[in-house]
Amino acid sequence: MLESTGLAVQLVSASQARNLKGRPKTDKLDAMWLARLTQWGMLRPSFVPEAAIRRVRDFARARTDLVRERTRCLQRVEKLLEDAMVKITSVARDGLKAKSVVAMVQALIAGERDPRKIADLAKGPLRGKRDQLAEALDGMFDSHHGVIAQMLLDQVAFLDQRITAMENQAIAALAQVEESWGVDTTGETGPGCGTTPDSQVLAAAHRLAEIPGISVWLAIVIIAEIGLNMALFPTPAHLVSWIGLCRSAAQSGTRHGKGKQKKGNSYARAAAGQAALGASGTATFLGERYRRIARRRGKAIAQVAVARSIMIIVWHLLNDPVARYRDLGPDWHARRTNRDKKIRTHIQGLKALGVTVAITDDEQAA
Asked: At what angle do helices 216-226 and 143-175 cross, to 10 degrees?
């Protein structure tokens, strides 16, 4: 409402104002004190994206919340099956995400109690586990379990429709943002342009989708949280810090302690973490980076490190619309390590012979 009147609205953390002691506590004096602090430039405004991006963010967050609710419903169905001594999810690794498992649960709801007949509904890789499925299905599933399970499955189907609707709304809302448009090979720009690899300028979401681990939808979620104007984040480090993918500084003299974990933006951090897990299994630079760190420091730290690398790449791609992602390759670390090791070995050998060597990097010279 205030923005519609032409006022420049700032959202400021209350902790900044509390740290600056001013007048006695009254509403009027508080307002005067905050106005003075703003006039003196002592309050740093928080990041608030423009209205068009906020609309995309609302749809994307609504979809995320619906997905979480859908997961809770599926967990309730699994708990119900466990209560009925049906251990089907112990055989089917994907659980109720597999269509065969849903068909088996539907058969139980319909009144079928023969484990062999229900196990025959398995498709794909589960057909080789029909004996195990029959043993897992031999439980105490009763009619009242069927009533509850059907209600939960109906709720899952309803949530699936709403998730699709929110996703379509978010895509349509982002298409109205001019900064997200691309440029086709013919030079045409607008909604839906710049979606092919040979485009002159890729659309923002498709530009980010070239990064391993990021799909078009995940790119939309990231854009919805951080916006398209990277001028608000002076460097990639500012963006990473705002998301909460780095710890706060804790340095005193020559000692560097382990700072506290920042809260940051939970939605953006979750999207970056999801992208990191998606990239972990790929034969790319990011995938190899994840595996190298996971071997030494564990998977959790590796996920955060790769998520941080992904958000740095995202900053550069959004900061320069013409830029394109170029993968360094899974052997980048090996090539760098072996090359540097060979250079050091040769230099040490030449120095031992009393020869002074001047090194010129051919890549930098090119």
From this structure: 70
Integer Cα distance of 249 and 267 in angstroms: 23
CA distances from 47 to 39, 145, 193, 200, 366 (A): 19, 49, 29, 31, 41
Phi, psi of 163 (to 5 degrees): -65, -45
What is the identity of the amino acid at 178? E
Reported as half-sphere exposure (CB side, CA atoms, 13 A), residue 351 has a value of 8
CB 66, CB 161: distance < 8 Å: no
Burial class (CB in 10 A: 0-12, 13-18, 19+), 291: middle
Type of residue at 295: R
Give the three-class secondary structure for 233.
coil
List 12's β-bridge partners, or say none.
Answer: 45
The DSSP string of 308-346 is: HHHHHHHHHHHH-TT-------TTHHHHHHHHHHHHHHH
- Coil vs helix vs strand at 194: coil
pLDDT, one tens digit per residue, over 8-64 is 777 777 776 665 665 667 778 777 877 887 777 777 777 888 889 999 999 999 999
Contact 174, 56 (CB under 8 A): yes
Count CA within 13 A, CB hemisphere, residue 261: 7
pLDDT < 70 positions in the chain = 16-24, 250, 257, 259, 337-338, 361-366
Q: Reduced to 3 states, what is the DSSP secondary structure of residue 40?
A: coil
Q: Which of 132, 139, 141, 78 is nearest to 109 (CA)?
A: 141
What crossing angle do the helices spanning 299-319 and 216-226 adopt, rounded to 10°? 80
Strands 189-190 and 182-183: antiparallel
| Beta strands 251-252; 182-183: pairing state | unpaired
For residues 218 and 209, give the distance between their C-alpha atoms in angstroms, rounded to a whole number. 8
Q: How many CA atoms lie within 13 A of 240 on its CB side?
A: 19
Q: Which residue in the block uniquely carries the two structure tokens 């597999």?
A: 98
Where b means 16+ CB within 10 Å and e means fewer, 195-224 reads eeeebebbbbbbbbbbbbbbeebbbbbbbb
Query: Which residues lie closer than 8 Å to 75 by C-beta, 6 or more apart?
Result: none
- Give the per-residue pLDDT at 20: 61
